[in-house]
Design goal:
The structure holds two protein chains of two kinds. By secondary structure, chain A is α/β, with parallel strands linked by helices. Helix content of chain A is 34%, strand content 14%. The longest helix of chain B is centred in the last third of the chain and has 20 residues. Chain B has a two-stranded antiparallel sheet with strand order 1-2. In chain B, strands 3-4 form a two-stranded antiparallel ribbon. Chain B is mostly helical. Classes of the chains: A alpha/beta, B mainly alpha.
């Protein structure tokens, strides 16, 4: 686990710890890494996790929930029942890991101070298209797909979303966004609480996380939610063998296994027992194996080619929705980590370009499948970065960042405003928030999911609700 | 293929006989028949299995000469073509990840002295050091060469060499062990894992004092190669004060540590039981173990006489079977069909099967009691197809004329592909049952009667290699 993560680590120790802790959540009950004083416990800590194979969709799921309430025997039927009901609206949450530099997504080249703050990293005014709602800002050419969708009225931009008294810790600030409150002690996610109030005890797809551990936003207290696992590959291959000879060969695994177990020799018994277990596992997993010789399915047009899985996972969400899977809240994170303390430009070229192109392709995919009117996508990060670049051609942790609400039903109007480098920075030199993520959540709940936010978001009564739909 | 080194070319040993030295030392000696089946087991336990017909040739030598054939191989040569990968490139053991594994696997396959490679594998497991921490294929291979060179010599030289081996100095922090802040990593493992055992009688105080004695080794970082180099003893980093180890006082250094450990009372017992564990799953009877310890000590910690006495022990031939270590089975399958290193897929295959050389799971080496589970059984099954390869697979279009239709003949042909390993009656029965149903009963049309035996023979080759008999030796 350690080396696996350090491979794509970002040089920021604290983010690594946060990630390790998050993975700890994925192994709920199997011993969390020690939480340091002051670090909030990730939402979802303590949930049980059960493997479940959903035959109807050929999906391997990990279902999370309170242990005593998890009953895999009911899931297949519960999912089928939910799928046969009316098709509801879907909210997809896309998390850009590590605190993306908002000033590299929409860059304020129209401001005189921009060159002073970004002498190395700054982009020329004409490099990308101007942001039509604020001519001081330009779209980074890397996010041309977002600019295009915006020009079609399908993107509501939050140029400086955040909260008062911003916390510059990846872990803490992300926790706030995940739980929907600036409360270190909340143990359920904001979407998870919505599902607890509206979901069912037998449809884990209602809250679906498309990665290998549960995103805390989806952590529930009552109802089950799920992560998608890649079905384990478990194929047996004998060269030049197929058809009936192959099927009979599998039977021979059992015959050889019994010979080994019955031999009375410990070594042969070990082989025999392994053969019997292997054949039992093979049979159970056979429906989930790709047919021999078939390659992984190609992604629909428009998704970027990638060495990572983000484009394929996003395409998978569209595909599952197309199959009529009863999902309500979906969460996904980029693999790219945007904690660009150094060498920011090349890292954004790879990561930000792929993320934006994928989100664009996802929207087009939904439109092509006729699903676009019932899906809204929220793109967020735990904070923006410091306007003044550092000495390593990078940027350090900041406060307010950018967010996007994308969909054919999105209002398409800017929420809040870009506060400007001259007057919009706080005492620490960070961007001041002009919209609050909790207000955004209230709007998404009430205007999109049509549910009273006061039961979900603490202090909702005091929150201003921006217009995000219609 | 010309085979230069085979038992049939063996001239009788006139020197020490393994049987007589074991008898002289007081160990039990196997007195039963020594035929191809026993020779086959010896070739697997002391090497990487027989090449075609090698078991019967070895059997003809008799037990005593057969063991000496393995333990006193004479000048070692590599026979057959050197590795060339699919794209025509030779392997690059120091530079390309995985090619270090291929380099060694090639030796396992081609060496005229398989027991030397097998002993090297044992020492690699005994002094388990991992590339994951060492980070240098050059240092790992250098350690491997050291182990190979000393594999049948004396354990005191082996242990001393490992104590100051660069890969080991990196792996167990010996190069970071300085007098101001002694690092106990090596001091602990050298007793617990390498020489005395977990309950070897030493104390925590001994660990700390050994750590002080072992201080002084260091290295420099080479920016050019991005690897540590210039491993040397620096007196300025050594604690030359008085230490108290095993109740004895002295200004001990690393040489003293080695000497003190080897003369500690629990060492001969640990050495004998550990070495024996590589050749038999059942412990050596107490009387034989004591005799082996006496032999070990009286010969000055010599490895070869103890090994020779062990290899003629009755338990090796009459005792329970052992699961073949994965890399031993891979090398053995290649040897059995006369295939050389012509692809790099064996690195991944070895890893999936549970034993990637140069990457032991930890300092205790591999757990040889748990080689087979659902994952590694699957890997070994699929391995057979990889070994067979495109060149050797049978096709109904081309081979239906030469493949027998009789089930019994099909099983024999499949077994002969792997050099006719010994199979129990129950195993042969299970294979025969497959041959009957897949080649005969399933065929109702004329073309099926021609083609199904070919397909069934392909399957039988994989099944033979997946039998409990072939997984063990």
């Amino acid at each position: 686990m350690g080396s696996d993560f350090t491979d794509r680590a970002c040089g920021c120790e604290e983010l690594n710890r946060a990630e390790l802790l998050r993975r700890g959540v994925a192994q709920a009950g199997r011993g969390l890494p020690a939480i340091e004083p002051g670090m909030p416990l990730p939402a979802g800590t303590g949930l049980s996790r059960r493997g479940f194979l959903l035959s109807s969709a050929g999906l391997a799921l990990s279902v999370y929930g309170m242990g005593s309430l998890l009953d895999p025997a009911k899931f297949e039927e519960g999912i089928a029942r939910a799928a046969s009901g009316p098709e509801g609206r879907v909210l997809v949450s896309v998390y850009l890991q590590g605190g993306v530099d908002a000033m590299s997504v929409l860059y304020p080249a129209g401001e005189p101070l921009y060159g002073k703050y970004r002498p190395v990293l700054g982009l020329a005014a004409g490099a990308g298209p101007v942001f039509s709602e604020d001519p001081r800002l330009y779209w980074n050419p890397l996010v041309a797909g977002l600019a295009q969708l915006h020009s079609e009225g399908k993107v509501s931009v939050l140029p400086a979303v955040g909260y008062t008294d911003p916390n510059e810790s990846h872990f803490t600030s992300r926790h706030f966004y995940e739980v929907g409150a600036t409360d270190a002690n909340l143990a359920t996610g904001w979407m998870g609480r919505y599902l607890d109030l509206t979901g069912t005890p037998d449809n884990p797809l209602q809250g679906l996380c498309v990665e290998d551990s549960l995103q805390p936003s989806l952590a529930t207290a009552r109802v089950p939610v799920a992560t998608i696992e890649r079905p384990p590959s478990y194929a047996f291959y004998a060269r030049g063998v197929g058809g009936v000879q192959q099927e009979l060969m599998y039977d021979s695994f059992n015959a050889l296994g019994q010979v080994g177990v019955a031999s009375g020799d410990p070594g042969m018994a070990q082989s025999g027992q392994a053969a019997l277990s292997a054949e039992a596992l093979r049979e159970r997993l056979a429906p989930f194996q790709p047919a021999p010789g078939t390659a992984a399915p190609a992604l629909p047009a428009g998704y970027p080619r990638s060495s990572g899985t983000f484009p394929a996972r996003m395409a998978g969400i569209a595909q599952l929705l197309g199959l009529g899977m009863p999902m309500r809240c979906v969460s996904i994170s980029t693999e790219s980590v945007f904690d660009t303390h150094n060498d920011q430009a090349p890292r954004l070229t790879a990561g930000l370009g792929e993320a934006a192109q994928t989100v664009y392709a996802f929207q087009r995919d939904l439109e092509a499948r006729g699903l676009a009117d019932r899906v809204l996508t929220l793109v967020w990060s735990e904070f923006g970065r410091r306007p003044k670049e550092n000495a390593s051609a990078g940027t350090d942790h900041g406060a307010a960042g950018c967010g996007f609400v994308i969909g054919t039903q999105a209002a398409g109007k800017m929420i809040g405003e870009w506060p400007g480098l001259a007057k919009g920075l706080d005492a620490l030199g960070n961007v001041r928030a002009t919209s609050d993520f909790r207000g955004l959540y209230c709007s998404l709940l009430e205007q999109w999911l049509e549910y009273d936010a006061s039961a979900v978001i603490p202090g909702a009564a005091r929150m201003a609700r921006p217009r995000v739909v219609g | 293929m010309a085979v230069a080194h085979r038992p049939s070319q063996r001239t009788a040993q006139t020197r020490t006989s393994a049987r007589s030295s074991a008898q002289a030392a007081g160990l039990s000696v196997y007195a039963g028949p020594f035929g191809p089946e026993q020779a086959e087991r010896l070739l697997w336990r002391g090497g990487f299995g027989p090449q075609p017909d090698e078991a019967s040739e070895l059997a003809a030598l008799g037990l005593r000469e057969a063991v000496l054939y393995l333990t006193r191989p004479g000048p070692v040569t590599l026979e057959g073509p050197a590795p060339v990968l699919e794209d025509g490139r030779p392997i690059d053991p120091y530079g390309t990840p995985g090619d270090d594994v291929l380099w060694w696997l090639d030796r396992m396959v081609r060496s005229s002295a398989p027991l030397v490679e097998r002993m090297t594998l044992i020492w690699h497991d005994w002094f388990a050091t991992s590339i994951a921490s060492v980070g240098s294929q050059r240092l790992m291979i250098a350690q491997n060469e050291t182990q190979r060179g000393l594999c049948l010599g004396s354990f005191d030289r082996m242990f001393a060499a490992m104590t100051i081996d660069p890969a080991m100095l990196v792996f167990l922090s010996g190069a970071e062990n300085v007098k101001e802040a002694p690092n106990e990593n090596y001091a602990r493992e050298m007793q617990e894992i390498f020489t005395l055992g977990v309950d070897g009688g030493y104390t925590e105080r001994d660990v700390r004092e050994h750590a002080r004695a072992l201080t002084g080794w260091t290295c420099t970082w080479s920016p050019a190669s991005k690897e540590p180099e210039d491993f040397h003893f620096d007196p300025a980093r050594h604690d030359d004060g008085v230490k108290l180890i095993y109740g004895r006082r002295g200004r001990f250094d690393w040489r003293d540590s080695v000497r003190l450990v080897l003369s500690y009372p629990s060492h001969p017992g640990y050495f004998v039981s550990r070495l024996w564990s590589y050749f038999s799953p059942e412990p050596l009877p107490a009387k034989d173990a004591r005799a082996a310890q006496r032999l070990y000590v009286s010969s000055g910690f010599a490895i070869r006489p103890v090994l020779e006495a062990m290899l003629v022990h009755p338990l090796v031939y009459e005792g329970p079977r052992m699961v073949k270590p994965p890399i031993v089975q891979i090398a053995g399958m290649l040897r059995a069909i006369g295939r050389y290193i012509d692809t790099d897929i064996w690195v991944g295959e070895a890893n999936m099967a549970g034993q990637l050389p140069f990457s032991p799971p930890n300092v205790s080496g591999w757990d040889a009691t748990k080689w087979l589970n659902t994952g590694t059984w699957q890997a070994r099954f699929n391995l057979a197809s990889a070994i067979i390869g495109e060149q050797r697979v049978l096709s109904p279009a081309e081979d239906s004329g030469t493949v027998p239709g009789d089930p019994r003949a099909l099983v024999e042909a499949a077994s002969a592909f792997w050099g006719s390993p010994t199979l129990s009656a129950a195993t042969s029965g299970a294979l025969l049952s497959y041959a009957q149903s897949a080649a005969v009963d399933a065929a109702s049309k004329e073309w099926q009667r021609e083609e199904f035996p070919v397909i069934a023979l392909n399957a039988l080759r994989s099944l033979v290699a997946a039998t409990p008999d072939y997984h063990t030796c």
